[in-house]
Amino acid sequence: MKKINNLCIIGIDHGYGNMKTANCCFPTGVSVSDTEPTFASDLLIWNDRYYSIGAGHKEFAADKFRDEDYYVLTLASIAKELRRDRITEASVFIAAGLPLTWVSSQKTAFKKYLLQNEEVYFTFRGTDYHIQIVGAEIYPQGFAAVAERLGEFRGVNLLCDIGNGTMNLLKIVNKKPDAQQMFTEKYGTHQCSLLIREQIMKIHHATLDDAAITDILRHGTAEMDGQYLETVLKTAREYTKGIFRRLREHEYDPKIMKLFVVGGGGCLIRNFGQYDRNRVFINEDICATAKGYEYMAERALRKTGGMF
Q1: pLDDT reported for residue 224
Q2: By three-state DSSP, how is residue 229 classified?
Q3: Could you tell me the residue range of the domain that residue 133 belongs to?
Q4: What angle do CA 301, 304, 308 make, to 5 degrees?
Q5: Coil/strand/helix, residue 53
Q6: Do 227 and 297 belong to one domain?
Q7: Average pLDDT, the chain
Q8: Are 154 and 61 contained in the same domain?
Q9: Are residues 130 and 153 in the same domain?
Q10: Which among 87, 100, 83, 97 has a CA at the least distance from the CA of 170?
């Protein structure tokens, strides 16, 4: 969270697998009920309804504003950031984003979605919050993660943002993003997990828990039967080869350009890819995009004297 006078700028990366702020990360899941659930550590109460934050898994949706889930997750994200500074009342400016090629077509609708309530009262983890959402801006996902370091992008570079649901590519030449060379593909870590589950069932007739798969993708290994582990590792390696195939389809040439990888899916490249570490750079900060949103919003607001 960044502050300009009494304004709190909160960057929120609305991922398909995880919600991220500059300082927090939690699963993109929410379940709702009209009565208080028996077990719920991250419970949000709003409009007399109870929302268990982080429960379940949010299915992939090309438009994030089709239901109230991402709005409730936005409130939880704001509360998590305010909680760090022991703030319960605040004027909030939301800095968020969308996949590169979706920004132009969905920006207006997503911004309206985030601004649907100017004043919000809710309770999160037993603490009451009163916030005024005074503004919002939507930025290109992935690019935000490197915006503050754009001066390092000399020569020809390819930015690759691998999330849970999508992979975004952007060519950056001599510190300037090329709007004609940006692409979004439905090829994230969730698709890799689905393929692993399919192979485990096909070969071993067993079911592997999502948490176990995520742990292996993050760390490259796990405590489990050797045959099961080898199936997971082999599948992950093949999937990662697919990432590089798609990069080459978009004219990636490791001999003439550097590759910058951001997003949670960077662990696939790190653990299962074959690459030149002098020309491929992996940002392992899963909150980098949310931090980038805050950087871009603060910079814009300071230029206008806090006007939006």
Answers
A1: 85
A2: helix
A3: 2-140+289-303
A4: 65
A5: strand
A6: no
A7: 93
A8: no
A9: no
A10: 100
CB contact at 8 A, 259 and 280: yes
Which of 187, 190, 177 lies closest to 140 in space, CA to CA?
A: 177
pTM of the shown model: 0.91
Are both 110 and 17 inside the same structural domain?
Answer: yes
Closest CA to 151 of 176, 168, 171: 176
Same domain? 128 vs 231? no
**Which of 43-57, 96-110, 115-129 is the most confident on average?**
115-129
Rounded CA separation 70/284 (Å): 25
The amino acid at 115: L
Q: How far apart are CA 227 and CA 198, in angstroms?
A: 15
Question: What would the pLDDT profile of 51-68 be if each residue is shown by its tens digit?
Answer: 999 887 666 666 677 789
* β-bridge mates for residue 132, sequence order: 91, 119
* HSE toward the beta carbon, residue 98, CA cutoff 13 A: 21
Give rounded-to-5 percent helix, strand, coil for the chain: 35, 30, 35
pLDDT on residue 222: 84
DSSP 101: G
242 phi/psi in degrees, rounded to 5? -65, -35
Alpha helices, H only, the chain: 69-84, 103-114, 143-146, 189-204, 210-219, 226-249, 266-272, 288-303
Q: Residue 98 in contact with residue 31, Cβ under 8 Å? A: no
Query: How many other CB atoms are found less than 10 A from the CB of residue 3?
Result: 12
What pLDDT score was predicted for residue 3? Answer: 93
The closest of 8, 27, 9 to 18, measured between CA atoms, is 27
Q: Could you tell me which residues are beta bridge partners of residue 31?
A: 52
Overall number of domains in the chain: 2
- Count of residues making up the chain: 308
- Each residue's pLDDT tens digit, 13-47: 999 889 999 999 999 999 999 999 987 789 999 99
Which CATH number covers residue 293? 3.30.420.40
- Residue 136 to residue 308: CA distance in whole angstroms: 8
CB atoms near residue 255 (< 10 Å): 6
